[in-house]
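Hey, I was hoping to borrow your eyes for a little while. I'm sending you its amino acid sequence along with the backbone structure tokens. Take your time with it, there's no hurry, and the full record follows here.
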Amino acid sequence: MTRLTAVVGNPRPGSRTHGLTATVVDRLVDAVAADDVEVVDLAVLGPALLDPGDPRAGAARERVAGSDLVVVATPVYKATYTGLLKVFLDGYGADALAGTTAVGVVVSAAPAHLLATDIHLRSLVVELGAAVPTRSLGVLEPQLADPGPLVEAWLATAADRLRRLVAPTPASREEVPA
């Protein structure tokens, strides 16, 4: 079983970032043979993310940490990522995402801010222990009208690496004798 989870860090529910993320997830499901898929929209959790004991925020963090592949999506805010995404990820301890493969998806109004994709977002996720084996997908706002070709071009270079990292190995499918 391959568990794929996407985290949308836009503070507006149903945002364009969410729509782009849905497109990425749809394409990744087939590419990595994911059979357990969920999108976590952090805007829906809002203030619950600030409460360390909130069960909904805790369940979302557990879901992400237990995933084989995580898509971390955010619009660019102040040349990096949203505070909402930062609050969510700050809820993890060191190396909490070890064993997880992650990819970044960033929406930007300006081409210069696409640097946030692989500089800031990648650094944050790697700090938590996730493996980030591919370039992130950076999309400019005008490209959101038809992101399919961009997602396909990104996936053409990323799919094989992601598949190798998240697909169950033959040894993991066999029962190990006690």
About this structure: The first strand starts at residue 3 and ends at 8. The chain has a mean pLDDT of 91.
